[in-house]
Specification:
CATH class of the largest domain: Alpha Beta
Pfam family, one: 2-Hacid_dh
Strand order of the largest sheet: 8-7-6-9-10-11-12
Number of helices: 18
CATH topology of the largest domain: Rossmann fold
Protein name: D-3-phosphoglycerate dehydrogenase
Subunit structure: Homotetramer.
Family: Belongs to the D-isomer specific 2-hydroxyacid dehydrogenase family.
GO molecular function: NAD binding; phosphoglycerate dehydrogenase activity
Shape: elongated
Helix content: 25-40%
Number of strands: 22
Number of domains: 4
């Protein structure tokens, strides 16, 4: 996928523009745009790079007539409407590792500051007081730290606070206790953590499942005097519940780097001013990623990731299209081509039958677990089918949005893996991809198309019960014909008569129907067979 122009709308380290420019990408930087200005500007660009200030709404994405990719130079993408991007076929990328160390260090600094009352003691001394008794602290050694979210940042926090002698417990729905034990964190369910933790730190994204994760009910379950740190996202911690917890003493202290509304002075919440000024709260203005090193890394990372997209390399940081993230790898590219090709063939054959399909079933037969290949190959089949059969504009359809667009058209899509030691013939890769289409009429089978990959080349193995021996390379232009017994010679004669250059002809075996695959240098049309016994079932361009 080419990438000609990129708009940057938030301040970034110059390395981002340097990397993109050296790769031949035209870069424009315009910061502090109003929404109206952004809506007008975005239509001219294929890529958009933001940090946290720019709000990439559905309106912005829809206005991006050429937009292919939105990049977040940072981790959180809550300022980007990923659902709207997905529906429009726009990739959303972040830089998952760029902020990790800075956010982890900021978290650890706040934990230490909470335990020693450093911020409050500093402010007291600067006001002219010498008050040693008020700021009696506590040691971290032996205290229990509950870490909610055991991704990159959570793990870095764990390793650093373990050096202070803290006992680290944690929860993450995506990993097991065996995995967390490898980096010294004892896995606990949330209800256990609330009861055990002296300190709680949050390292999860803001999604519906984590909104107000810690509210008044959770605070009531915690140890009296618990200390809470949030350097993740505002909204994960219920700020009003925290305020009341600080007031009552149930919460012994808190440190916030993020807020529901930023800056919090713009919030109209009645409690916010008292919360910020509370003597047991340490507040910083979203500084978790504000280090020179982190700013350089995220700018460099997002630029390099954009170049990877442009050059068709394997991708990292792809938020809304997991299948596309692996589609660029050398091992997977042939399967993307295979899936799309046989999806096109299946769609063309069904169209000739005159019955619109309601169900597409992809079966991947192989000698081992296909892993991500099943989803990738199946999505590619759906993409090929939709490109051949749909009325939608092709440039707006890709692996990012094709499942949504297919569902919009009422297509039921299923996939399954069948593992068997003798699943594939010699010379093929470990898998065979079979596509079965059914129509509305009584769910009867219309067409079955089978293919595989041989020496990194997608090949067609069968259409229905008609087999094609060692396979037919899926490239160029192909016509699928129903022919009489002498159809082979007839096809050659007809195409020669019309000056058509045939590159290959393949006859099916094992089927009562005599199928011919005719590969030509130019598209195969019905006009060549109107005066013959040949019936064109499908014409496909790969």
């Amino acid at each position: 996928m080419g990438l000609k122009s990129v708009l940057i709308t938030d301040p970034l380290d110059p390395i981002c523009e340097q990397i993109l420019g050296s790769a031949g990408v035209e870069v424009t930087t315009k910061t502090k745009l109003t929404k109206e200005e952004l809506l007008k500007e975005i239509k001219n660009y294929e890529g958009l790079i933001v940090r946290s200030s720019t709000q990439v709404t559905e309106d912005v994405i829809n206005a991006g007539e050429k937009l292919k990719i939105v990049g977040r130079a940072g981790t959180g993408v809550d300022n980007i409407d990923t659902d709207a991007a997905t529906r429009s076929g726009v990739m959303v990328m972040n830089t998952p590792g760029g902020n990790t160390l800075s956010a982890a260090e900021h978290t650890c600094a706040l934990i230490v500051a909470l335990s020693k009352h450093i911020a409050q003691a500093c402010a007291s001394l600067k006001s002219g007081k010498w008050d040693r008794k008020t700021f009696l602290g506590e040691e971290l050694n032996g205290k229990v730290l509950g870490i909610i979210g055991l991704g990159r940042v959570g793990r870095e926090v764990a390793s650093r606070m373990q050096a202070f002698g803290m006992q680290t417990i944690g929860y993450d729905p995506m990993i097991s206790g065996e995995v967390s034990a490898q980096f010294g964190v004892e896995f606990k369910e949330l209800n256990e953590i609330w009861k055990l933790a002296d300190y709680i730190t949050l390292h999860v994204p803001l999604i519906p499942q984590t909104a107000n994760l810690i509210g008044s009910d959770v605070i009531a379950k915690c140890k009296k005097g618990v200390k809470i740190v949030n350097v993740a996202r505002g909204g994960i911690l219920d700020e009003e519940a925290l305020f009341h917890g600080l007031q009552s003493g149930q919460v012994g202290g808190a440190a916030l780097d993020v807020f529901n509304v930023e800056p919090p002075t713009k919030s109209d919440a009645a409690y916010i001013k008292e919360l910020i000024e509370h003597p047991r709260l340490i507040a910083t203005p979203h500084l978790g990623a504000s280090t020179a090193e982190a700013q350089f890394r995220v700018a460099k990372d997002i630029a390099e990731q954009f170049i990877d997209v442009a050059k068709g390399r394997p991708l990292v940081g792809l938020v809304n299209a997991p299948s596309l993230a692996v589609a660029m790898t050398p091992a997977m590219k042939p399967w993307v081509g295979l899936g799309e090709a046989i999806g096109k063939i299946a769609a063309a054959l069904v169209q000739s039958d005159g019955n619109p399909p309601i169900e597409i079933n992809c079966v991947l037969r192989g000698s081992k677990d296909p892993g991500q290949l099943l989803f990738l190959a199946s999505s590619s089949v759906l993409l090929g089918f939709m490109k051949q059969a749909s009325h939608r504009k092709l440039q707006s359809m890709n692996l990012v949005n094709v499942p949504i667009l297919a569902a919009d058209e009422g297509i039921i899509f299923t996939e399954q893996a069948l593992i068997s030691s003798d699943a594939t013939p010699d010379g093929l890769t470990e898998h065979i991809l079979e596509v079965v289409l059914k129509t509305v009429q009584n769910g009867r089978q219309v067409v079955n198309v089978t293919g595989s990959v041989k020496a990194s080349i997608p090949i067609l193995l069968a259409i229905n019960s008609g087999n094609f021996g060692n396979g037919v390379d899926l490239e160029g232009h192909m016509g699928v014909f129903l022919a009489s017994d002498d159809g082979f010679g007839q096809a050659l004669g007809i195409f020669k008569e019309h000056g058509k250059h045939i590159t290959a002809v393949h006859r099916s075996t094992g089927s009562p129907q005599n199928l011919l695959l005719v590969k030509a240098a130019t598209p195969v049309g019905k006009s060549y067979t109107q005066q013959s016994d040949l019936k064109l079932l499908a014409s496909v361009d790969f």
